[in-house]
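Hey Z.,

So I finally got round to the S-adenosylmethionine thing we talked about over coffee. Here's the setup:
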Amino acid sequence: MFIRRNTFYLRRTGLPFSTNVSPADKARAGSHKRWTRRQRKSAWTDGLSWEERLADAVTPLWRLSYEEQLELKQNSQQKILSELSGSLSADLRSDFTAPATAKPNFPVLSVLPSPVRDGYRNKSTFSVNRGVDGNPKTVGLYVGTGRQGNIVCVNADHLLNMPEKHKLVARCYQDFIRLSSLDPCLLFHTGGHWREVTVRTNAQGHTMAIVYFHPQMLTAEEVAVHKEELVEYFTRGPGSACRLDSLFFQESTMTRCTHEESPYQLLHGQPHIYEEVLGFKFRISADAFFQVNQAAAQVLYNTVRDLCVPVTEEGASQSKTRGTLLDVCCGTGAIGIIASPRVDRIIGIELVEQAVRDATHNAALNNVENCEFLPGKAEVVLPALMTQLSFGAGVLTAVVNPSRAGLHPRVVRALRKQAAIRRLVYVSCKPDGEAMRNFTELCCAPDQEKKLTGQAFSPTLAVPVDMFPHTPHCELLLLFER
Ligand SMILES: C[S@@+](CC[C@H](N)C(=O)[O-])C[C@H]1O[C@@H](n2cnc3c(N)ncnc32)[C@H](O)[C@@H]1O
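And the result:
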């Protein structure tokens, strides 16, 4: 049975944060008194504090012990994989005969735990909006939704997955925007400027902060004054307690802008921070993808490497020829670079150009010479690559790690059609979503109508990895063979 934790800790940094409230802030707070009363009432009708409601939204498993969390995740992965087995049993393949309720007909290993359970996040994004007291210059995370019009921004100091450094930067940013003469940008069309702040840290504690700002009608000279104030605050003012290694600023008029759409402006410090995983060093740019839990990423990548290129007890690659590894949706190249000593050649494919530049840089940084990274959509690049390259009798393995949207059907078709691929590892952060469609397309009997030709794959092993303690999310590694 699950035990409800009876301690809910609220930690404060103890820093002398400013209590200055401008007359404009007071007026705003006054005009929101009724709103605040309503929000407060609704918060307490379910008997939960705002902090508990936020924890329930962001880390819904926080009341459970870690063992209970792992049990829950194991059961949910088991259920997803049973559904996969069930849907494959409807197919003509004779070795998939399990009914929908049966256990998966391939081994599912126990969830590999995260070596770090609390404060594991290396990247957090904090919003700016009305807090519990109605102050619109509150930095935290949301309870409620925009659609229901009941958003409340709650400080995230109590969240178990949040490291102290991220909380500190968020509180300093709140202090800074409360001192600023500019308004926060709550809704794009109603004006205001200060938006979210993203904090990235590495295992050594190096810290990058990225402040998002809506310029509205301000001139470049006017924006420059506020950028200077921001730098002053974080380098010589109270914010210097954060010891930022990098401070970026992005003027953005949309929810999300790429570097190409609106450049990340380096206001202070280094352009990158670096993270080390399994002895390899990775450069992290302001907008690059990197696994959010560095310690668990080591477990994940180690397992992915072993599934892609198993080694014998003597440490030699099992394959007669070491072959080629296709790293589809390779991000900044982590999987390919880490697997590179075990194969002859790595070919990575990635949509985001900056990530491809990072991947190329990371290969050179680690003196890895057998990797190449191709920019573009996998659905365009991979089919062309499959027709251009000749793999002869060489071993060809694929690892795919798409975002939640899963793989485009053209990618699945190209993988199936390439007879040289005998082994395929699918890394999914949401296996019950679009990835499930990919799994069935990889394993179903050939279907000319859907252009699913080539021999079907079979799932042969599943390994869940917990990258996100206190949340229901779990990374799933699924090995397919044929
Ligand atoms: C979950 S991340 C994995 C990155 C990498 N494997 C890692 O472990 O760091 C998914 C990556 O897929 C990329 N991506 C998304 N859609 C894509 C597409 N259609 N073609 C190629 N890459 C894509 C994203 O830019 C992102 O870098």
